Amino acid sequence: MRLARTAPSFIVGWLWFLGALVPVIGLVQVGGQARADRYTYLPSIGLAIAAVWGARRLARPLRRRGALLAGAAASLTLALAAATASQVPRWKDNIALFTRAAERSPQSWVAHANLGKYLLDRGQALPALEHLLLAERLNPDAAQILLGLGTASMLLGRPAEAGRAVLAGGAPAAPERGEPAATSDVRWRQAAAGVRPSNSTGRCCV
Question: Can you give the pLDDT at residue 4?
Answer without folding.
Answer: 65
